[in-house]
Amino acid sequence: MRYIFLLVSFFVTFSTIAQSTKSFETPYEKGNKNQTATYQETMSFFVDLEKKFPAIIIKEMGLTDSGLPLHLILFDPDKMFDLEKIAKTKAVLLINNNIHPGEPDGVDASTQLLRDLAIGKIKVPKNTVVAMIPFYNIGGTLNRNSTSRANQNGPESYGFRGNARHYDLNRDFIKSNTKNARSFAALFHEVNPDVFIDNHVSNGADYQYTFTYIQTQYQKLGEKLGKFLNEEMMPEIRKQLKKQNIETIPYVNVYGNTPESGFAQFMDSPRYSTGYASLFNAIGFMPELHMLKNYEDRVKGPMNS
Ligand SMILES: [Zn+2]
């Protein structure tokens, strides 16, 4: 049950995050709400957060193709920070951002989430740790532009999809051609998450919903965990979202189909992040914010439009 509450609170708190304390405003909150924080701004924000709040630490977790290390931000209310012990004794939520840096909504949303956890505005269930990769594709994040996401409604500028060596990292979890993928695999096994969220933005189809999601196919998770996800966790999440007037549906992947003929569910094989996570019994979610909605509404998260 703790996963349900954590996920529900994660999905719905974005809408209240805007009222966070002025003293620790994130770089995104300081801007015009149509700007995503740069790598440098975000990392220096976390350095300040780590200095001020003992439940937050920044860890280096191996190299990426950019030459810079992969970072993990850990929120552990018990201040244990020993990943091996945490993996054995606690529920762990792992959040990944900027695998596709043209889709940076998750960076600005989860920076606010970690801040709100640090200041105690959001409480996690007992024995729960939140781990967050602020930038998975660091090389792409540093390669900023304003034109590589055709028709996307903000932010003003953002990173590029390919990494420092122009690999699409969300196709590399099995091949591991990149240092990013090899460092991620080591990180993933050390952190050993129960629930994994990889934040994305959609690629063109138009519809009403701001917030859609790919949920890993429950059949991949084996009888007990798959049944739990399908029959308990998802219905509860949908019920809680509905209570708050938040409408959401699975990711729309049309490929010429009509609603009458039906849309096939996205098949996340292990070359993708959530498919990789499900190989190791982690429940995977890939939020897909709608690229044609404005950036502020997307960062706020699931809401009607
Ligand atoms: Zn993406």
Characterise this structure:
The protein is an alpha/beta fold. It is built from ten helices and nine strands. It is 34% helix and 15% strand. The site of zinc ion has 3 residues, from loops.
In short:
34% of the residues lie in helices and 15% in strands.
Quick one: how many beta strands?
9
Helix/strand-derived category reads: alpha/beta
Q: How helical, in percent, are the residues?
A: 25-40%
Order of helices and strands: HHHEEHEHEHHEEEHEHEH
Cα Rg: 18 Å
Into which percentage range does the β-strand content fall? 15-25%
Low-confidence segments, ≥5 residues, pLDDT <50?
12-20
What's the main sheet like?
Answer: 9 strands, mixed
Tally of individual helices: 10
Bound molecules: zinc ion
Mean pLDDT: 91
Shape assignment = globular
Secondary-structure topology with pairs:
Elements: H1 2-13, H2 27-30, H3 39-52, E1 56-63, E2 69-75, H4 83-89, E3 91-96, H5 105-118, E4 128-133, H6 138-142, H7 179-191, E5 195-198, E6 200-201, E7 211-215, H8 223-243, E8 249-250, H9 273-279, E9 283-289, H10 295-300
The structure holds zinc ion (ZN).
